[in-house]
Design brief:
Layout lengths: L3 H12 L5 H13 L1 H19 L7 H14 L1
Helix pairs in contact: 1-2, 1-3, 2-3
């Protein structure tokens, strides 16, 4: 059995496809009896789907540095 903290950790790993098969089984068992974690897991899954559909990307290091420079020049 795993506690809620470990369940949330595995849930987050599962979101990024980093959870092992055994971790996923442990999470599934935990979600059967913990309604709070089951809700968290469902919301996490929805968030993952929305992010994938949104085609989100982060700024490159060069873009971040350029933004930093502009902000420093503005101040």
């Amino acid at each position: 059995m795993i506690n809620c903290e470990k369940a949330s950790e595995i849930c987050n790993k599962k979101q990024y496809r980093e959870a092992s098969f055994l971790e996923q089984i442990k999470l599934g068992i935990h979600l059967l009896y913990c309604k709070t974690c089951a809700t968290f897991s469902k919301r996490n899954k929805k968030l993952t789907i929305l992010c994938e559909k949104g085609n989100l990307h982060s700024l490159s290091i060069a873009e971040k540095n350029a933004m930093r420079e502009k902000m420093q020049n503005f101040i």
